[in-house]
Amino acid sequence: MDNKETVIVLDFGGQYNQLIARRVREYNVYCEILPYTVDIEKIKAISPKGIIFTGGPNSVYDETSPHYTPEIFELGIPILGICYGCQLMAYSLGGVVNSAVDSSSSEYGKTITTYNTNDVLFTGLPETGVSWMSHRDYISKAPDGFSISATTSSCPVAAMSCPERKLYGVQFHPEVNHTENGNLMLKSFLYNVCGCEGEWKMDSFIDTTVAQIREKVGDKGVVLGLSGGVDSSVAAALISKAIGKQLTCVFVDQGLMRKDEGDYVEQTFTKLFDMNFVRINCQDEFLSKLKGVSEPEAKRKIIGEEFYKVFWNKIRESYGSGYFAQGTIYPDRIESGKGDAAKIKTHHNQVGVPKDINFEDIIEPLKDLFKDEVRVVGEKLGLPHELVWRQPFPGPGLGVRVIGEITAEKVKILQEADAILRDEMDKCGYAEQMSQFFAVLPGVKTVGVMGDARTYDELVAIRAVVTDDFMTADWAKIPYEILGKVSNRIINEVDHVNRVVYDITSKPPGTVEWE
Ligand code: XMP
Question: Which one from 107, 135, 155, 173 is the annotated catalytic residue?
Fold first, then answer.
C-alpha cells in the first residue's frame, strides 16, 4: 500500500521496539521500525503521521550513545519519546538529564505514577496508576516550553509535553502490559495527537496486495518454495488469490516431516486453492546423504544443502523465469538500531537466488507484516486453523529430533510416537496451551519387560515448552494423567519402543530442540 498512513518507530536499541510497532499496528496504524542511523531525508520522504523514539540501554552522555539530528523536532511531525527516547528529546531541546547511578532516582519495575489528566495522553484515565519503569538516568528539568505531565516519588519528570510542537515524552514504557492503560496512552498519541484514522486493516491489505501482485506479474508465472510453515503457506494462498494457476508452488518433502504432514500440505493446497502444486519426494536421497553422519551440525548442514540443491535444480529445470516469491515477514528484515552498524538480520526465509537463475524480480507479499498479522491474513484467506496456528517446526525437521545417525526406521518410530503425542494433546485440549511440543528419539536402548519377556528397545523422550519468544522457555507442567496416557499408548502402539521419559529442562540451560 503506497502512501499509507505510517508511524515510524525510531530504534535506539531498546528491547521492546517490535512490541511498540505491534501495539501501533493493533490500533490499525501501519508502523515501520527504522534504525537511528537512518537519514532524515528518508523520514521526510515517508512523511509519517508520527514518530516514536524507543528506549535504549545508553545514557545520553555516553560518547557512543545514539543521537539524532535535532532537525527532526522542527519537522512539525508529532513525536513521542519513550524512556531513553524521552531523555534524548529532553537533552536535545535544552532540558537536564541526570545520571542516577548514585542517586535513588533510578527505577526498575512497577512504579506508582501520578498523571495530569488534562494532558492529551492521559485524558480520561485515572490520576494515579502503575507504570513500568526501567531507567538509570532521569530528567530533572524538562526543556523550556514543556510542561510536566506525570511524576513518581523519585522521578520529577515521568512524562512531559509540548502540545504546540506536538512533542511528548514518557519515562516509562506504555507498550508493556505492566503499565496500566499504557495501550490507551499510545492510542491517544496515534489518534488525538497524530490524527491517524486507523486505515491499516487486514481486509484492505489483502485487496491491495492482490491488486499489486496482479499488476506486477501480468501474464507471467510465479514460483514459490512452499514448506508448509505459516509464512510460506499464507504467501501461497495470497498469491493464488491474485493469479491462480500462474502460481506454481514447489514443495520439497525430504521425508523428515511429521507423520502424514507431506500429504496434508499437498491436500490443503491442491483442494482449497487454485495453483500448480509440485511435490518432490526425496527421502531416499536425503537419507543416503545422511548415512553414517551423527554430528548435529554436520546433519543440519547436509539437510540444508541438499534441500536447496533439490529445490533449485527443479526451478532451473522447469521454472527459471518470471517471478520468484517467498514468505519473508517483517521481523525477518528489520534493521536493528543496536550497536554501531545497523545490520539486517539474516534468516532462513531469505533465500539467495542462485546467480544463474534470472527471475524478473522477487515478490514478498508479507514483507510488511508481523507474525500475528500473517496469521490473520491466513485465516481470512481460508487456510485451515491448524495450519495457521501451527507450532514452529525446525527447517531440518525430524532430522534434529532423531539424535545421532538418521535412518528410515528411526524416522518412522519417531513419527508414530509424535503423532500419538499430538493426538492426546489435542484430545485433552492442552495443545493450544503449549508453545511447542514434540517427541525425540535419543537413540538410547534400555532394558524392559513386556509380557514375561525381556526387551531391549528404544527410549522416546517427550518435550513440551511454554514461551513467549523462544529465547527462553519453561518446560510445560503437563498433568501426570496425560503424560501417563501418552506413555502407555506409545509403548503399546509403537513397535520397538519400551520406555518413555519427560524432559523437564528449561531454556536455558537446555535448548528447545535436542540438537
Ligand atoms: P532452540 O532449540 O534453539 O529452538 O532452543 C528455538 C526455536 O527454534 C526452532 N528451531 C529451528 N527453526 N531452523 C528453524 O527454522 C532450525 O534449524 C531450527 N532449530 C531450532 C525450534 O523448533 C524452536 O521453536
Answer: 173
What is the whole-number distance in angstroms between the Cα of residue 227 and the centre of ligand 1?
Answer: 15
Instruction: State the total domains in the chain.
Output: 3
User: Is 175 assigned a catalytic role?
Assistant: yes
- Do you find a cis peptide bond into 174, omega within 30 degrees of 0? no
Does residue 1 fall inside a structural domain?
Answer: no
Indicate whether residue 511 lines ligand 1 (CB < 6 A): yes
In ligand 1, the atom with minimum distance to the C-alpha of 436 is 24
CA of 471 to the centre of ligand 1 (A): 10
Question: What distance in Å separates the CA atoms of residue 49 and residue 31, rounded to the nearest whole number?
Answer: 10
| Mean per-residue pLDDT, 291-313 | 96
Same domain, 263 and 346: yes
Which residue among the candidates 5, 107, 135, 175 is catalytic per the annotation? 175
* Pair 336, 371 in one domain: yes
For residue 514, give the ligand 1 atom closest to its CA: 2
Q: What's 384's domain CATH number?
A: 3.40.50.620
d(CA 377, CA 231): 10
Beta strands in 99-154 (DSSP E): 107-115, 128-135, 138-141, 147-151
pLDDT digits (tens, 9 = 90+) for 203-216: 999 999 999 999 99
Dump pLDDT digits (tens) for 473-490.
Answer: 999 999 999 999 999 999
Question: Is 428 designated active site?
Answer: no
Residue positions counted in the chain: 515
* 230 within ligand 1 shell (Cβ under 6 A): no
| 512 Cβ below 6 A of ligand 1 | yes
Average pLDDT of the residues of the chain: 93
Residue nearest to atom 22 of ligand 1 (CA): 394
Determine whether the shortest distance from the Cβ of 349 to ligand 1 is under 6 A: no
Let me know if residue 70 belongs to a domain. Answer: yes
388, 413, 430 - which closes a domain: 388
User: Is residue 507 domain-resident?
Assistant: no
Q: Measured between alpha carbons, how far is residue 99 from residues 96, 106, 171 in Å?
A: 10, 9, 14
59 Rama sector, left if φ>0, alpha if ψ -120 to 50, beta otherwise: beta
Residue 295 domain-assigned? Answer: yes
Question: Which domain covers residue 97, as residue numbers?
Answer: 6-193
The answer to whether residue 405 is catalytic is no
Ligand 1 centre from 394 Cα, in Å?
A: 5
Q: Based on the domain organization, do 213 and 139 belong to the same domain?
A: no
Do 253 and 183 fall into the same domain? no
- Looking at the structure, do residues 155 and 251 belong to the same domain, yes or no? no
CA distance 463 to 476: 8
State how far the Cα of 29 lies from the Cα of 8, in Å rounded to an integer.
10
> Do the beta carbons of residue 58 and residue 84 sit within 8 Å?
yes
| pTM (two decimals) | 0.86
394 lines ligand 1 (CB under 6 A): yes
